[in-house]
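User: Can you fold this complex?
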Amino acid sequence: MTTYAITPTVASFADAVRDALGDLPAEEVDDLTEGLEADLAEAFADGRGELPDPIAYAEELRTAAGLPRRAARRPGLDAARSTLTVAARKAWSAVGPVAVELRPVWWVARAVVAYFAVVWATGEYRQLMPDTVVEWFVLAVAVVISVAWGLGRWQPSWFRVPIIVGNVLAVALLVPVLNHQGDQTTTWADAEDALVPANVDSNQMDLTGVYSDGNPVTNIFAFDAKGRALRDVQLFDEMGRPLVTSTPGGNGCLDADCNDVGLWAPAVLSTGKYAWNVYPMRMLPSDDNLTYLDDERPQVRPAPYANVPSVDRERTAQANSPYADGPDGTD
Amino acid sequence: MDATQLLKGVLDVAVLAVVAEEDGYGYDVVRRLRAAGLEDVGDASVYGTLRRLYSAGALTSYVVPSEEGPHRKYYGINAQGKAMLELQRKVWTEFSTTMNQLLTGKAAA
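Assistant: Here's the predicted assembly.
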């Protein structure tokens, strides 16, 4: 096929025609004027003399295509609108192809969002990132399905509407999920730097903590009514303040001889926040410089008792004069 | 009488006939119409007509990439377009016969 040089005159004529069609939807204008430059260039090569008036040309194009005539011009508004439309079209012609190329990124992103949303909704896991082989597999399946849909495969025709709804949901959830994920991936180091318990005045660090007979309490072990050890108990004082024994960075011994040391590790709440009032508190093994070890997980601390006597609830409720019975509650 | 006025009424069937002969892009159709004797046909009228016939489902379209220069959008006729062409051919034949008879003063047989 012979190609014809597109001169600046032809290009500016085509722009003027598109401008005159500016009140039409961009897609319509593209369809109407696709190949316009090439056609004009060829007409010139065929011996055509002068270019016609672009406005009249646009009007002829529009009428022949069966489109409504341009509404009466309202100079200011119209010019502004057509300038905007032309600018938008130019911007899209620059950005559009890139956006189209990036569609696969979106297909993967929406699968990840869907996976996170399901994990989050089931509430089973506080951590959204897949951890086990099964979770990774589920996520991978979600990605494969999403990409297949993106390529127009595996979707019956009635499926279009659910996919559109799903896309809208995915866009809406993208930011919250990423935010939540951001919280989750905060490292222990970040926690130490950034998270100070609510009741800690950073200027008076040394006054914080829980004391028993004047000695700092480093950990708290709770037992239920039957005398069994409890895990992950959240403690607050009478003012609703978290009962915190250790500040971020607080350290202690991992064994009785203090051969190994560790950093007190907070619990992670469903909100993604760290909580320093969850007991018994775990400890993250560290090196001698009290830097946490990357490949270690927080360790549960051994309880001082495996079990304690159960509570006699009946007598507790009926003992109306414990003080009369004696300081130990014995009669 | 202005021939361009007459042309407006028959441009659809003229364009369909040209495309039915062989697929073509915008200016190619213009050139073939002119070569056939419709010298006053306007480029923009033809492009607009091609677009409208395509929207009406009478034509198919495909893009032929070009190594240099812009891509070419070709139009071809489909079954619906062929049916439209047949009908309009008949309408035109009857109409032109009637007009010929009227203008030459011969009454219908």
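The longest strand of chain B covers residues 59-64. The radius of gyration of chain B is 16 Å.
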